[in-house]
Input
Amino acid sequence: MGNRDAFPGQSGGSIGRWYVEFKIKLNGASAPTILSGSSFLATSGALAHVGGTNVISVTLRDPWPEIIFANADLRDDAPNGAYVTIGSITGENSQTVPPAPIAFKLNTWTAGGAVSNDSSATVSVSLAIRNSNTTYGNNP
Output
């Protein structure tokens, strides 16, 4: 998990970190569309959505040891306070051979905290990812 090629929307940082950004358009009951950062997402089945739910599944292209920071922002045409959260993350420190890529869930909500099924908003995601299991000083 050490050496990596940099894809568009991805940059190297200090202390073995990579910073990644991508943007998707939610399409109601259909699968989302990738607007930018597609080279960082899995080449097949990167995004999935089951109609009638508020869950969007995201699979990254490569395995990574750990997501240090994750943020998602929902941009909607209606200024109604709706938002998106990042749910369960799987695949961190994958010990399978070959290692499993990281996957996570995005969940859409109304301003009042109720489930917002089949959203059609745009979602931007930013991630800071540990590139290796190397530790530096007292900063594991």
